[in-house]
Predict the structure.
Amino acid sequence: MSAGPNSRPGWVWRRLHRLHEYAALWFGLSLLGTMTLTWSLLSVPLHYVLPRRWAEPLGRRAITTVFRLYLGALALIGACRFDLTALDALRDQGPLILAPNHPGLLDALLVISRLANVACIMKAELVDNIFLGAGARLAGYIRNDAQLSMIRQAVAELQNGSHLLIFPEGTRTTRWPINSCKGSIALIASRARVPIQTVLIETDSDYLGKGWPLFRRPDMPITYRVRLGRRFEPPGKAGVFSGELERYFTAELGRASCLRPPGAIQTPAPDTEQANHGS
């Protein structure tokens, strides 16, 4: 007679799987914190010692290595499954604006783990963060708190041959499948005269989406898949292009095979076995 779903062997298996998820969650967060803090501490003297022409390539290559090792560790312990190989086709191409959708906090890591020559536009509080700030400054990443300065630096990076990573939504997705797209991406593309390469990030989990507390356990393994979308030529009118870009993402992500279903982007219900943590 086979064991039912409520049998003791089934209960033990579920308990062990949940313990593994907790262990993987804490291991992953601890590993990322250790790796980023270590590199941040090393970046401080390098930022002052090295000339910019050496510092930025070193900083970007190091961040790519750290993120690739981190994602590899998550895959090794069974926390996540990643399919990011589509990004490899962009490595030897000229300057591009990389425009992904933004379902969760890991999105920038997914892209940068495969592409080393990337200038990333970051929230100012992240550039000031003890774990990420010094490494971001060494790599020449761009703060988003001054619009004109941000656009000027972004154009300069593209003209120097870098890829530019910017999330058109400006923040993590709260309205499935994508928020309204901002106009800054069109302004940068128009001034730099470079195309916009859309990047489609698909996942089957709300983990680290908007409203997900950092220490809340997700169901594992989590699947992430990245594929390349349409490449847009530099637009003429920012307002018109923002609407076109939003409609494109909505259509493409609506057909995606492993995205969350509509309405899934919300603060998850508390786990009865977990303490209540803030975001």
